[in-house]
Specification:
Number of domains: 2
Low-confidence stretches: 10-28
Strand order of the largest sheet: 1-2-4-3-5-6-7-8
Shape: globular
CATH architecture of the largest domain: 3-Layer(aba) Sandwich
Largest sheet: 8 strands, mixed
CATH superfamily of the largest domain: Alpha/Beta hydrolase fold, catalytic domain
CATH class of the largest domain: Alpha Beta
Structural class: alpha/beta
Radius of gyration: 22 Å
Helix content: 40-55%
Mean pLDDT: 88
Number of helices: 11
Length: about 280
């Protein structure tokens, strides 16, 4: 039979092993969250060439992550655009996946800027909220110059469009440039709260890639802004309640539509007439 001291020693060793296991597990979750949030890919051969042949332009700049490229579809008449849309895709999308917006909306007097995150498309580096924000800071002056706008004009002429993760990034762009109109497709409330969807318990305090749409949307409202939020009632990636919650928090500052039988990635097909109408309303 073991002595009391030996049993105590065994107990302490087991406790220590358990603590080490928990810490290692939490550390692993912290380290792998990058792979949970971002799914960067490169462009298929010919995609960029097709965009450029259609009149699209590169907006090239450098950040701490290396060379970055966003994409500009100028206004059709070549003049200074009536409005400038900054378009941000989801975590598994590329910016040019949304390049149809320029023609499909009929807003040919507007310019569209399709924004890739570090590590996506032809951009170097790795994505992180701070690095994405750094890219937006560098991109703004380029948009102003290339579109021949007065300094600070994005606050009045700018509009943002974002899907999923891109909804958070588009609100980041709106905050940076003072933009007051946003069209958001399937937004989450925050990456901290999304951990409750992915794991049995909230790991919000461990999340280092922090996007907070509660705060960002409140900031938009404080500037007298308005957002149009669309969310599918069959979304299995980001719960519909998150889009609804953001809308409730913002009251009359948000126009919310729950799209029947729509999931996460078919929103543009399921709700296109309403999304197009929202984009046109955002210009007024």
């Amino acid at each position: 039979m073991q002595s009391k001291s030996s049993r105590r020693s065994l107990f302490y060793r087991l406790c220590r092993a358990a603590v080490i296991g928990v810490v290692a597990g939490l550390g692993g979750l912290t380290a792998c969250q990058h792979k949970l949030i971002y799914l960067p890919t490169a462009y298929e051969p010919g995609t960029v060439r097709s965009f450029e042949l259609a009149g699209g332009q590169r907006l090239e700049f450098t950040t701490s992550q290396g060379k970055q490229t966003a994409w500009l579809q100028p206004a059709a008449d070549g003049a200074a655009p009536e409005h400038v849309w900054i378009v941000c895709g989801g975590n598994a999308s590329l910016a040019l996946d949304f390049s149809f917006l320029h023609d499909e909306t009929g807003l040919r007097g507007d310019a569209f800027v399709y924004f890739d995150y570090p590590g996506y498309g032809v951009c170097e580096g790795k994505p992180h909220p701070d690095r994405i924000r750094e890219s937006l800071e560098a991109l703004g002056p380029m948009i102003t110059e290339r579109c021949r706008l007065p300094v600070g004009a994005l606050a009045e002429r700018g509009l943002v469009f974002g899907h999923s993760l891109g909804a958070a990034v588009s609100l980041m762009a709106a905050e940076k440039y003072g933009i007051r109109r946003a069209v958001l497709i399937a937004p989450f409330t925050s990456t901290m709260e999304m951990t409750r969807v992915l794991f049995p318990v909230s790991l919000g305090w461990l999340v280092t890639h922090r996007f907070d749409n509660h705060r960002a949307l409140a900031d938009l409202m404080a500037r007298g802004g308005h957002a149009w939020i669309f969310h599918g009632d069959s979304d299995t990636v980001i719960p519909t309640r998150m889009g609804r919650e953001l809308a409730v928090e913002s009251g009359a500052g948000v126009t919310f539509m729950e799209v029947k039988d729509a999931g996460h990635n078919d929103m543009l097909d399921r709700a296109w007439p309403d999304i197009e109408a929202a984009m046109k309303a955002a210009r007024k």
